Each structure stands twice: as structure tokens, then as C-alpha cells.
Queue: 4 jobs
Job 1
Amino acid sequence: MSRTALHLATVAGLMMIAAPALAQQPPAAAQPAAQPAPAPRAPAGAQERAAYDRMDPLSRSVFWAAQHEINPADAEAGVKLTQALLEMGANDQAVDAAQRMLVLQPDNVDALMLAGRAHIARGQAFYGIAALEKARGLAPDDWRPLSLLGVAYQQVRRTDDARAAWNEGLRLSPDNPSILTNAAMALAASGEAASAETLLRRAVARPEATLKTRLNLAMVLGLQGKTAEAEQMLRRDLPPEAADRNLQWLNARLQEARAAPVADTARTWASLQ
């Protein structure tokens, strides 16, 4: 075989050996396939929302926070998230949730009232008054902003304004238990137990009166020394252990009031706040 023929045969053999190895290598320009973008989350339907409304405040706060994240303009989600946070005592977070709603919906009356409630709950009612006054202006026929305004005014010691707000609320909703209870507890905290009792008796006579209103009446009665009637009410509404604890608290406060000079009785009533 000539030298040229031998060289060509060698080159051909090398190419045959290298070909399988080259075939096993992926093309240099190959790229991984693109992954499809995740589908956007959809808001929960009416049935699921109704189911969560029956759950405890923590479960509701988690659910409504997720719904609000999906759609920050979802007014129902924002309102119910704030309500759940208030029930949990997470008052600072409730303020933040209400304020986020108001950025997008500055005239949302429910959000304005919740902002006011949250400030009241954390003892900073002054910062909620503007929101509540705006709610009153947007809904002049609604008693709810007036009821809350009275509480806020009372907290910042604007007593006359508080009573005016409650009186206007009662004009719109006569004998409303919520307004009567707020006004009564303001009187009780000022040491005007007899006047507070009168308002609370009007409140509990209404069919829509709540357990809280009845317990407030029992407390006011007990602090006036009307312990038999107070005990009867407490044992009707509370389990035995809870009734016993409340009666012990009332007896201790009553003893304090009896031992203190008349000028110092406001200390005992201040604990009602």
C-alpha cells in the first residue's frame, strides 16, 4: 500500500472511532425547555368565604389576609381581615390593615369606622377621630359612626362632644343597645353609677341586646352593692367558674369603694375603663 493510501486509511479509522463519541454529546446550543408561568390565584367563592366566616378569629385572619393579597381592592377581604385582627387583640395590625384599605378606598365607611375602632382599642382614640368624623359625614343617617365617635371623644376627655354624639345616635336609632351601653359605661367610669344603671336597663330590655350589655349591667349593679341581682344575672349568663370569678372581682372592687374616701372613689370606677 502506498504511503498516501495508508495515511487516508488511518484518518478514516480515526473518524469512525470518534463519531460515536461525538454523537453522544448534546448540541452546544441546546437550552432547557421554558417552564410555564404559574396560573394566578383566584379569589375564593361565596361558599368558601361563608365557611371561613364561621371559624375562629385566627383562621379568619389568615384566610382574609390571603384574599386581600390576591386583590388589595377586595373591600370584603379588607374589612373582615381588620375585624378578625381586632377580635384577636392585634390592634396595631388592625390599624395597618384599615389604613391600607383607605389608601385605595378613602371613602369606604366601613374601613373608616374600623380604623377608628382600632385606634380606640389601642388607647389612641385621638388618631381615629378624623376617620370617624369623615364616616359620619359620608353616612349621616348611620348611627354606628356616632356610637364610636362618642367612645373616642370620651377617651380624649371631650365629654360634652361624646354625649352629643350619643344623643344624635339615639335620635337616629332610639334605644339602640350599643349606643346606650357606650354612654352608660362612660357614666360608670365617671362614678355616675345610678345614671349608668338607668341606661343599661333600657339597653337590656331590647331584644337585640348582647351578652356584653347584660354583663355590664351586672357589673354596675354589683359595684353599687346590689350584689344579689348582679349574681343572679351573672349565673344566668355565665358558666359557674366564670360567674364565680366575676363575683370575686366585684366584691373586691366593692370593698375598695367602701374603704376609700368619697373623693377617691373615682379610682375604683376608673378600673371600668
Job 2
Amino acid sequence: MKRTSYVLDPWSSELPSDYKHLMEEFGIKPITEDLKKRMPDSHLIRRGILFAQRDLGRIVKAYEEGEEFAILTGVKPSNVFHLGSKLVADVLKFFQEMNGRLFYAVADIEAYHANKQSLEKSAEIAVDNIADLLALGVSEKNSYFYKQSQEEEVMRNGYLYARNVTNNTLKAVYGDKEIGLYMSALVQVGDILLPESEKFGGPKPVIVPVGIDQDPHIRLTRDIAAKHRLVRPSSVYTKFMRSLTGSEKMSKSEPMGMISLNDDEKTVEVKVMRAFTGGRVTVEEQREKGGEPLKCVVFELFKYHLEEDDKKLEERFRKCVNGEIMCGECKKQAAQRLKEFLRKHQEKKKKMIPKARKLLEKK
């Protein structure tokens, strides 16, 4: 496997400083205009939220020809879902609409190593996570939900695929980490290649939607798949949602920096009103110079989640840069829309808890 001068860390909350550089460094390609035209219309594509890929053409071809393909993703069940998690759900729905079969892993082995969390605690949090996923509209039909610790195929293959993977290779891909994280990474190889096992019909195209920080798992798995005569998994990359502080990616480890899907209305309002913006120091200066929406986390909320209409989003952008709208007004509108969304979502979620529990029962 080719060595690079930079190491991406899947376990870090740090924001990438330069997506273009990372794409060039690791051989990740942009989503071409041809590929965009061949896929269903989506704000994820139009707004550049899904922005890069490896072998996406293989998935698009399967979609066009009505052939089988799988979607593989998962969650490390360390905390409640937030708006970044909702973005993942939106991506899953997009590929489900292209008739992909979803494989959804509860990464309790990774949580055990990375978060020192018991399997029992992970199981409890996972029910809440899956209920969120179902309430967000991810279909349980043509889907397979499982826990890493209970899926024998994943655990067995994770160790079998480790053959000929050297310590130097793992260091080159992940940096110098404790052995438990290396082992959890190999279990994730088992996850990604699970849809290609005989249990699920053998080799087939698999798309793995991830943030660019997770690309080490993709590179390692593609290398291993080639050695085992499997189809190298495809991947698609989403831009990160930033923390409300603007300093790092939205993370479960920073409660005040994220909008949790369990937050009550008062908490949402407090968090949004404290959020980092692209505003000027004074109202007068903002009216004169305009705001900077590309720096603004609140504008990002509208772009990713709160404004479906592209023209209205463009109008908000224009008003901001022209100094026609103040940050306080934008924040109030964002908070109101979030409260309305969460009120409806939480009602749906309550009804999904029993179903989520049943989906995660040991098969």
C-alpha cells in the first residue's frame, strides 16, 4: 500500500483544513457532472454536500442496469444522534432510493476499544440510535441491522482478512495507535466486506458513505478485497457539519457544540443563539460590509438541513453578504425550524423504539 505524507485519523474530532489537498494526497476523485446527471436529483449532490468518491461509477452502473448493490455504514454507539448523524441518514435514504440494500453495523467493538464502553451500554444506546434512524425515514425493508459483537461472520472474517496485514501497514494507514484500535479497524474490514460474503450472495458492488476522516478504513479494505478476489468497495464522501462553535466537526463528545436529536426546545434555542456566525463586530459594520455566510455555522444549518428550496437558500446568502439580514434574525429562524423539526421527529421516534429493539435482537 502506498505511503503518504499525511495520516487521517478516524478517531479524531479535528476538522480537515483542506479537502482538495486530502483528495489529491489519497487519490480521491470528485463527483463528475456525468455521474451527477445519472443519479436521482438531491440537494446532497446539488449543494456539494456529497462531494467526492472512489469508484462511484460502479454503483451508478448497477443502479442504471437494475443490478444488485449494497450500502454499508454503521454507528459507534457512544452517545445520542445529532444533526451530523441526520446527514448520514439522508445519504442512506438517497442510496436506498437507488435500490441499494442497506447493511447497518452497530460498532460496539470499536466503542469498547475507542471509548472503553461495555457491550451492554452500547446495546442500550444503539436502540436509541436505530430508533432515530427509522424516524428519519431510513427504510427497514431490504436492510440488515446487526451488532459487530454478535455477527460471527464479521468477527471471523476480520481475523481472516488480517493475514498478511503487517504492523507497518497499519501504522502507515492509521498512525501509531494501540493494538485494540488496529483490531477494531480489522473488524470494520469485516463489516465493509460482509455484503460480499456467501451468506449474502457473494461478491457485489458495495458503497460506503463516510466522512473523509474515515478514508483509512476504505483504503485498507480495498487493498484487502483485491487480495481476496472480492469487489473493491466504492465510497462517497460528505462534507463535515461543523460544531456550533465552528472549531471542529460536530461531535457527540461536545454537547454544547451539537444539536442532539433528543434536545428539548429550550436547549435548542440556547445552543443556536450561542452559535458561531460570519457576522461583523457591530450591526453598523455588518450593514456596511455584509456578513460572511461561508464562515457561518447557522447558514450551514440551513444549507444542510433547514432549507429545501435552493432559491431561498441563495436569497439568504445574498441578503447576508449585502448586510440586509442580521445574525440574530437568522438564528431565531434557524432555532424555530429546528424546534419544529425535532418536535415531529421525537414523536415518531417514540413509536420506533420497540421496532429498533427487535431489529437488534440477536438473530
Job 3
Amino acid sequence: MKLLKLVPDDTNIDFVRLRGWAFGLTLLLSVLAVGITVYKGLNFGVDFEGGLMIEERFAQTPDLDRVRSVVDAQGVGEASLQQFGDPRTITIRLPVQQSGDEGATNAAVRKVESALAQAFPGTEFRRYSTVSGKVSGELIRNGVLAVVLAILGIGLFAIFRFEWQFGVSTIVAIVHDLLMTLGFFALTQFEFDLNIVAAVLTIIGYSINDKIVIDDRIRENMRRYRKMDMREIINLSVNETLPRTVMTSVTILLALAALLFLGGHVLRGFTAAMTLGIIVGTYSSIYVSSSLLISLGLRAEPENEKPLRGRPSDNAERVGPRS
């Protein structure tokens, strides 16, 4: 039986030749992502913003102004409305109730549910969640800390496992993937909650997994072809790992596509973040982090290395980077 090959074995693409365009595109997209995030902001969920969130599904697309007036008339605080998934599903955000206990929260939910069911026949109550302001602050701090520690830990691992150039290029690639994800959520205004933090950490894990495979092949070829130009070594290494990279990305994207279209609106933000992360992570591993090694001055033979005198086998045993 003939095996499926998405990338031919004799593929020989000059990836390094496009590194100038790739660096320019990466910088442009990163600046745009930061600008969009600062300008529009993230649509923080109740996990990070605190308060009460009620999800209702209407029989027909409702008039948001009328929904807001109905909710405001219940005396539970100023409501913030947003369509969620489709025009008929509305999330209603309310401030934390004054007493803050579970009884007050349940009473507010029942008020809103009853009022909307009366004003809009056929309305279906989906779910509600509540987080206090103190807890939301802790969740923001812990979420940011988790992402920062993950990036630093991965960078240090790459430095000790390979060379410092690999660590720097790894951090640059991961930060690029993170900025793309933030920009995407600022642009689409998908709800940003703890599920998305989990997606971001998963994206970082996938990105470093793909990059470590390529870096390991680069180091292996640096040992094997000590006199070869670094540009040729990187092109050779990326082309050798390209079938594995493409096949892994495609199989993961197939699973994510099923979740995106069939997993329901609850998983839509998580799945969208994962899908974007796989695409961006694959791009950054191939075009950004690998080619960046050249700009950082990585060489197959260190500059201070002097040829050994003696038998040819002595020279053959010399290797470039440390293990």
C-alpha cells in the first residue's frame, strides 16, 4: 500500500531566500496585532472581568435595545449585551450583586429570566456564571504569570539544550504566535476567558514541539556538515522535517475543523484560537525562528575554533555546538 505523502521526499525549497520578506511580514503583523489589541481591547469574559453573565437564546433575532431596557427595569444593574455565536444567542453581563451571596445572584438570574421569557416568548435560558472582582483579579494575574513562565522556561530549555541563538529565536517565535492570537481576539471580539488562556498555552506547547524538531535537525546537520554554509544547513534541515511538520499540522487542523463546526458555540473561541495557533506556529517555525539563527550569527564552527593537528580522525571528531 502506497503511503500518503503531502510533501515529496525530494522537496528542496529555499526558505532562507525569503527571510527578508518573512521578517518584514512578521514585524508588520505583530505591530498590527498590538495596535488592534490596544485600540479595541479584549472582550474579557466573566472569569477576568468579574460580575454575572447570563446566556439566553431567543426564538428570533431580538432588538438589543429592547432587551437592554427589559433587563435594566429589573433593578439588577446596568446590562451589557453581546451576540454570542449567532444573532439569536445573547450574553447579558451584569455587575456583581450588592450582597454578593449566592441567594442574591440566583434571585437576579430568576428576575432576568422571567422578564425576558414574558417579553420575548420562546426565549430559552442557557446558563449563567459569576465571579467576584477579587477572584477575577487573581485569575488575570495567574493567567499572565502562567504564559510568561512558560515562554521563559521554554527559552531557557532551548539555550541549555542547544545554543543561546536557539533560545532567542524560540522566544521570538512564541511571542509572535502570542501576539497573533491576541490580535485575532481583539479583532473578532470573541470572549477571552480561562479557556482561551488554556488554548494559548497549548499553542505555545505545539509551537515549541515543532521548533525543537527543526532545531534538533539543524544541530545534527551542523555536526554532519561542518564546512557547509549555514544558509544551506537551515534549508536542508527545514526541508528534511517539512513532511513531518505538514502532516502533523494537517491532521491537527482536521480535528480542530470538526470541533469548530460541530462543537457548538461554547468551544468556538477555544477552537478558533487553536486553529489560528497551529497555522501561525507552523509559519513561525519554518520562516521566522529558523532563518533568525543566521541573523543571530550561528555558525557550524565557532569562530574561536582552531583546526587540530594530528590524524584526520581527530579533526573528524570535532563538532560545532555543544551538546
Job 4
Amino acid sequence: MELETVGDKYPGFLYRKQPRNVYWETTISCDLACQHCRASAIPHRDPAELTTEQGKALMRSVQELGSMLVLTGGDPLKRPDIAELIEYGRSLPIHVSITPSTTPLLRRETVDRFHELGVSAMGVSLDGPTAEIHDAFRNVPGTFDYSQKALQWAREYHIPVQVNTTITSQTLPHVKAMYELLRNEHAPPVRRWSLFLLVPVGRGSELHTPSADDVERLFEWVYSISDEAPFRVGTTEAPHYRRYWIQQKLAEGMSIEDIQGRARAMAFGIRDGNGVIFISHRGEVYPAGFLPYPLLGNVKEQPLDEIYRESDALHEIQDPHNYRGRCGRCEFKFSCGGSRARAYAMTGDPLGEDPLCAYQPDAAEA
């Protein structure tokens, strides 16, 4: 993967030529009504969704980019051609992962089919340690039980799982209990537990984000369990955890050179539009699913690889030299860069500062 290193003391990377992950919102249709849903998903499919052939053309672009493809929604299982699409993608070959909704559409034989097709990983959403908490967040009774079944089936068919937990003011108090549930009962097949810090868009705009200080305390806890956890504990839409990690390692005596040497393994620099790209169910290309601005193009009209590599607007968002506010002044901006999606959602400026970062670079320099 061709990368451009940026920054000096705490470097990151610019993904100018190829993103690491391409996220395709295969459909907006879903049988759940989750409180945080970015897409404000609906029960029925949109006639303007990419067709099967358009989806295959997108997959060929992903192959050209050399990226991995993540099939999202809505619920990808609402597409009757989803197995055909996975099979085609694997034949190219590209790595294909999928994040199905935990509804009656997800059955043991579905997970078995994922295994037969060579799906790289499956995403399972879990936002509470009990049915009462999780189902209330998802607005559909029985969702927690389906999540538990999905994890059991993934273990049965040896499919790696990423568990996704949305962090809001409502779910934050239950994070430690969630960890105990996953650690004690689901360590295999869970490979990664992703704590997704709410971006208030779609239906999620009605929810409350934790405070910046709450997030800092969450980072402290994540750091404290990271060595003992039987799976990787990561953050999504919270790149400032990298800033926290660097600060802790410096306090523990790690050298700048060793920190720089960990930059690639710690995914320094990956954020909305840099290392990831998003395609909507209608084919629109955006920097990320939670950053629907600017519109970069449409894969119905132009191949994704051309859009990604030739977009000046995308290149502007990728480069931390362009950031404003605290993010622009921060010495960690190349390794972190803040959530561009949250900056846009909460301030209207995709190049502005991330409101849920507690770090004050000016105070550090004083």
C-alpha cells in the first residue's frame, strides 16, 4: 500500500492512492429502528439502489484500489442478491466483510453460507449487556437474543467477529458490563470490540453524546484493559484515543522513536476520508458514512478508484495541515486528526475541531 507519511514528531499517513477499507451501504432497508441509525433506515428497499451489475462494477473498482470491502446497510440481508455479490467479490479476489442486522433474516444457515463464500469477518452490533438495555436501544424486542445467536454461529463456523458498540450517554454506564459479557462468554470468535463514539447524525441526532471529559475517562479505562483483553479493544470515530495512547506511552518512558515505529500498527492517520471511503445505496461517494459532505461523485457515473484518487475535495479533508481550531493547532493532528464527521455534525465545519476531545494544545505549549 502506497502511503505518504505526514508529521514529524507524531506522524500519520495520507491514503492518497487507496483507502484501507471501502464501506458500501448496500441498501437502506432494515427491519430494526435503532435510536442511533445514521441512515435513518426504512423497512423497504429504495428503487434507486445500485443494481447487481453496478455493485459488481464497484467491486472491480475496489480490486483496482487494492482495498478491503465492508458490506453495510441498512441490512445487507434485505438484498436478495447479497450472496451473489459476495461470491463475485471473492472471485476477483477481494476481501469482503459484512455487517448484517441481528433479525430473523440472520440464521445459522446464513452464517454457514458466509463461511462457504469466504467472508473475512462479520460485524455484530451489541449496545448493552442485557436484553432489556440492548433491545430498548434497538427499538425491537428480541434483538439481543439474535445477537447472542449470531456470535454462537460465528464461533461454530469459524468466522471472525467485530462487535460494534455505540457509545452514547445512555450506553456509556454499561460498557464495563459489556466487556465482562464479551470476555467471559464470547472471546472466541470476537477478534475486535469497537467502541463507536456517537456522531449525532440521522436518528442519532436525537441522542446525547458523552462529554469530552467522559470520553477521556473512557480512554483511560480502554487503555487499562488493552493488555489483558482476549480481543483487541478499539475506538471508532474517536481517533483522539491515539493522542491519549501516545501521552500514556511517553509517561511510561517509551521513546519517540519507538512511538513512531508503532505508527502503522496503531493506524495513525486513519480517519474519515483518509483510509476509509463510503458509498451510499444510491452510489454517492462520501468521505465516510457519518460524513455526508462533500459529495465526491457517484459510482454510477465514474469508477470509485478514479473518484478517490482524483478528488481535490477529498484530498483537502485528508490533509491535517488544513484543519482549524484546536485540531489545527494540535501537535498530534497527524496521528489523530479528530473525527471529521463529528466536527461537521456538531460545528458545520468538516475541517474544524472535534468537540469531544478534551485536549487543549495551547495549554500544553504554555
